[in-house]
């Protein structure tokens, strides 16, 4: 006879040991280093233009994105719970970062980033990372697509080279009204550079997917602008270039008034960062067959955000596209992510002056492709076809994200998804008359019936499904509708995995009603956990009696 033992609870070391330590313990050799060197270089080539583009779209300067990739990306890989996660600035944060920078300035943005790191580390240390998996799939698809729409709308000015006479609004409808009024100022040169960038990115992706299409497209556009002398705005003309080194570390302003002012922004950063980074880690798990440590990953994300803010960077999170690129490039360990950060640092040390020639229209074209890829067309189509519930959650999240606020979209989508789940679970609960053989466990004087009509004094009903507050009223209505009251009423719980307090309270009320009518209630097939819930609500002898079934495996105490 085989005895099943409960797995031991994971220790602190099991949950929070970085994957880098695990890899080194397993044995890390020259072959692994070679593979990580190639993959780290590949990802750095992708991250270089993307980090600058995201930082600019977020309302900051391009070097902020590079600082984020260098400092934040290094700590994500060095301390994280995934072997393959690549950290850096992410398109999903563009809206929140831009809003925070507009409301509180750069100092407020850095403080919010620092505080979000504290929140993320606390979430991980409290072992709450596993709860991120409860975000419904339609919500993630909806807010990701909504962010894609917002990112694209934010790039229209640079895509077309428009000249605006008023400040570009943040809200979508006013923004489109201002942009429509400025269409007469379109720059053919900027529009041509944007198209060249987009066509190059898409073309290389199809013809030579292993090539660094983003870097090639931006480099080609920069050369075209320089050689042809096109009147197009560049990083140099707008920002004066980028620094060739990291800044000295400085703590953000931690005054109580400033902290209270940016606290909501920091909470939004932490919530989105937890979702985005763990989704990215799950994608890496699916591609490699490995398993990440979610709480360790959140602690690493927290440290990375604090470090990024200290060095003047913006929000850090795990990035799905760069992580997938890392896996496809043959990464073996977190060393590849650490090398990616060092390569980005090397690029700015060696080639910072060249960044001045990068046209803003090229970076806008790059982000246009990124935003298009963020809209998961196949997933949206599948969810719209799957039923009204998933479609409602998806569209609510999508539209609220676009026209209201990202956080509001996630909260409303999650709430609707939860209500939809509860509705479906309540519909899955059944109660019906069913044959059942029972073996007396508590009373030898009561004969054991062998079917729903074993004798005219016994009535047996079987419950199935999770018996919780959403189904309590339905089950109660069925039980109350029974017209013939027998001497013995048997409730079979063998197909019930869970009972909550609302359901137990309803059964307690029903048992008292039966007791007043002179009917003995017998409960059978309960697990120890279910019996404890029933007992805590007064369902004890002599109000009810408990038995165990003999037509299946007996349950201890059931």
UniProtKB/TrEMBL annotation:
Membrane topology according to the record: Multi-pass membrane protein
Subcellular location: Membrane
InterPro entries: SLC26A/SulP_dom, SLC26A/SulP_fam, STAS_dom, STAS_dom_sf
Domain called STAS: residue spans: 457-539
Cellular component terms (Gene Ontology): membrane
Single GO biological process annotation from the record: transmembrane transport
Predominant cellular place of this UniProt entry's protein: membrane
Transmembrane segments: 37-58, 65-86, 106-128, 135-156, 176-202, 214-232, 266-286, 298-321, 341-370
Pfam families recorded: STAS, Sulfate_transp
Alphabetically ordered keywords of this record: Membrane, Transmembrane, Transmembrane helix
Protein name as it appears in the record: SulP family inorganic anion transporter
Organism: Ancylobacter mangrovi
């Amino acid at each position: 006879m085989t005895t099943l033992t409960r797995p031991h609870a994971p220790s602190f070391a099991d949950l929070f040991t970085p994957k880098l330590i695990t890899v080194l313990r397993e044995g890390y050799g020259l072959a692994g280093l070679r593979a990580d060197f190639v993959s780290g270089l590949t990802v750095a080539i992708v991250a270089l233009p993307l980090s600058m583009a995201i930082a600019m779209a977020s309302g900051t300067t391009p070097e902020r994105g590079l600082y984020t990739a260098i400092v934040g990306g290094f700590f994500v890989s060095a301390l994280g719970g995934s072997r393959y996660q690549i950290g850096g600035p992410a398109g999903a944060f563009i809206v929140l970062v831009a809003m925070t920078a507009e409301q509180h300035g750069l100092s407020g943005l850095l403080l919010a980033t620092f505080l979000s790191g504290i929140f993320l580390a606390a979430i991980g240390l409290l072992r709450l990372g596993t709860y991120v998996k409860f975000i419904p799939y339609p919500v993630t698809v909806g807010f990701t697509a909504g962010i894609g729409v917002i990112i694209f709308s934010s790039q229209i000015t640079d895509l077309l080279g428009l000249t605006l006479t008023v400040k570009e609004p943040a809200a979508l409808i006013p923004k489109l009204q201002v942009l429509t009024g400025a269409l007469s100022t379109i720059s053919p040169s900027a529009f041509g550079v944007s198209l060249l960038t987009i066509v190059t990115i898409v073309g290389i992706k199809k013809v030579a997917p292993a090539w660094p299409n983003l870097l090639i497209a931006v480099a080609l556009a920069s050369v075209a602008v320089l050689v042809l002398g096109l009147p197009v705005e560049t990083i140099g003309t707008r920002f004066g270039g980028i620094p060739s080194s990291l800044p000295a570390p400085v703590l953000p302003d931690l005054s109580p008034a400033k902290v209270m002012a940016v606290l909501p922004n920091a909470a939004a950063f932490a919530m989105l960062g937890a979702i985005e980074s763990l989704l990215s880690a799950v994608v890496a798990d699916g591609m490699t067959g490995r398993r990440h440590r979610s709480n360790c990953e959140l602690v690493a994300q927290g440290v990375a955000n604090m470090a990024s803010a200290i060095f003047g960077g913006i929000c850090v999170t795990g990035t799905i596209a760069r992580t997938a690129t890392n896996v496809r490039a043959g990464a073996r360990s977190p060393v590849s992510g650490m090398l990616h950060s060092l390569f980005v640092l090397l690029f700015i040390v060696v080639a910072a002056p060249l960044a001045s020639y990068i046209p803003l229209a090229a970076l806008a074209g790059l982000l246009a492709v990124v935003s298009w890829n963020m809209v998961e067309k196949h997933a949206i189509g599948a969810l719209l076809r799957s039923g009204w519930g998933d479609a409602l959650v998806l569209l609510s999240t999508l539209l609220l994200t676009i026209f209201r606020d990202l956080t509001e979209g996630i909260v409303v989508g999650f709430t609707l998804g939860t209500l939809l789940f509860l509705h479906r679970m309540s519909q899955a609960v059944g109660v019906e008359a069913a044959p059942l053989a029972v073996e007396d466990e508590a009373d030898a004087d009561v004969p054991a019936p062998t079917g729903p009509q074993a004798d005219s004094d016994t009535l047996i009903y079987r419950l199935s499904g999770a018996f919780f507050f959403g189904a309590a009223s339905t089950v109660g209505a069925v039980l109350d509708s029974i017209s013939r009251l027998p001497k013995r009423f048997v409730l079979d719980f063998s197909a019930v995995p869970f009972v909550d307090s609302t359901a137990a309270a309803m059964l307690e009320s029903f048992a008292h009603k039966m007791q007043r009518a002179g009917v003995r209630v017998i409960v059978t097939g309960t697990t120890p956990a279910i019996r404890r819930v029933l007992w805590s609500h007064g369902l004890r002898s002599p109000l009810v009696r408990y038995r165990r079934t003999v037509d299946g495996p007996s349950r201890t105490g059931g």
